[in-house]
């Protein structure tokens, strides 16, 4: 039977199974075509063939196809969408959207201008609902499909692999489920693929090896698992690969060592095992490599390329590293960041690190380093951050630390340092955080500490400092946290402390302080926590007017008397 003679009901069944985005191509199938299109239930199929709903705070939009000039058709679809919205609202689909109206935007995905216009239109809206397979019909899309942060749900349609001209695809932050389709390997012109934080499961398809133009790949913060396929050898343009915080296992692919343009490699927060391929850290442009918090067992750090003047960083942070990756002679002189925290590194501080003069951030905390700090530490004049906390480093803090003139944060806490704070510390004029708590430091606190006027956090607690708290503390006008607890300080609380108007936390407890609770505390308008317990303070507390912001006041184990001090606000805790 010739198609033009097909009964209406037969034609209807045929058209009901067609992709509504491609229905226009069947325009000349038969004379009854328009009749079929404009009669229920096929008109309903068209009306509800939606890209999704977008919400801009007032309206919900529904995209329909094919494009039509019939106002009656759009009116009909408007009614269908409105009815769908009203019926779904009670069911919860739109419960979070206080919408005033539902509107219809007509598109024709067969025309490039409208395909592009669709995604331009989406920039000011939030898209909700599943990604329809019909998106795969927009084969002329060639630039940027950016649905970042939308409420897109459901699986990734395999039909997206038809968008072979696409250069950028961003679905980060979506509420997807299911796996990455193998068909994504067809996107051979793709330069940026961002699927981070999209709740994806499964593994990375081996077909990703076809993405020879890919420069940036973001798959972090998903639920991906399995081994990562060793298919990166052909990705000669790859610059950024971030697959952190998934559940990958096995070895880090050797073929990554062939990605000569690679600058950023983040594989942290997985279950990678074995050793780190030496070829990766020999990549000539590598700037940041983070393989922390895995099951990496590395006897040495493979040497990086000695050539090049670019900066780089290395992070092998891992609570499960079985041996010390720091061995003499394996220096990374070009690195700007070295992160080896949360390992089982032991032995003395490696001397060769002091030759890495480009270092800006050095983090070796939470290890088992011992012995003393070398004097050469002062040669790292570009350091912004030095974090050696929670080790077993002993000896004195070297005077040469004065060479760290760019230092912003110094953390030597929870070690075995002895002696005092060197006078040379006054050279660290940019220092904002100084953490020396839980050591064996002793002796009087020198007045030079007051020269560090950039300090916002100073913690000297749990040491053996003695003598009076220097009046020069009052010069630290940017100080927000001061903790001198659990020492052997004597004398009165110096009046200079009451000049620290930004101070929010003051802990002077467990010392040998004497004298009254000064009325000067009323000048500390930002104070939220005040602990002067376990001292020998005397007199009445009633004269002390405290900050309206004070939340915690601890006065116990002193020789204070009288009623509670006046308080500007209720709700603080008195202990």
TrEMBL record:
This is F-box domain-containing protein. One of its GO terms (cellular component) is membrane. SUPFAM superfamilies: F-box domain (SSF81383), L domain-like (SSF52058). It comes from Chytriomyces confervae. The keyword Nucleotide-binding applies. Residues 1-45 form the F-box domain. It is found in: Membrane. Pfam families: F-box-like (PF12937), LRR_14 (PF23598), LRR_8 (PF13855). It is a single-pass membrane protein. Its main location: membrane. InterPro entries: F-box-like_dom_sf, F-box_dom, Leu-rich_rpt, Leu-rich_rpt_typical-subtyp, LRR_dom_sf, LRR_R13L4/SHOC2-like, Plant_LRR-RLKs. It comes from the Eukaryota. Keywords: ATP-binding, Leucine-rich repeat, Membrane, Nucleotide-binding, Repeat. GO terms for molecular function: ATP binding.
